[in-house]
Amino acid sequence: MSPAPDANPALVLASGSPRRRQLLEMLGIRFRVMSPDVDETYRNGEAPEAYVVRLARKKASAVAARAPGELVLGADTTVVVRGDVLGKPSSEEEAATMLASLQGRTHQVMTGVALAAGDRVEHALDVTDVTFRPLDEATIRAYVATGEPMDKAGAYAVQGRGAMLVEGIRGDFFGVMGLPLRLVLELLERFGRPYRLTR
Predict the structure, then answer these.
(1) What pTM, to 2 d.p., does this model score?
(2) Which residues are identified as catalytic?
(3) Is 126 a residue whose pLDDT tops 60?
């Protein structure tokens, strides 16, 4: 008698992000990680929405080419304030400048997600509004000194100490963390691999 199929399908996660790993683990989805190793350069004049979707699709496709027959999840997140795209800061000074531009304002966190199997790629986009508290320079410098902002889009981690910067969120908290779970589940459904709570 053959074993029953796993109710939660295994995935390949095309991301080294510990936050994305944590969210998939939270849902009990089995996965392994493969680095996508793609060029993430922002194209001049590219719409932020198009940018994150392009990178999510590119990451998923790059890994799917190396993992035939497997379902590959790619994602990319960026922060947008007044039309400016804020990626990951390259220095503490840049991190402080980014945070100063966000303080006391509402910005958008955009996360593109893509699922690929072979040549088929499907994607979805989450846009969430995040409002920062007014912050003085000393608070910004103290947060930068923790080191937390250095590998985060927009120079903050909403699920870490960066939570103290935030006044409110309108939209998907998990999208701000880098993986809007509701969209991942929708994509799994499109591929005929619905998520189930029971095994």
Answers:
(1) 0.89
(2) 76
(3) yes
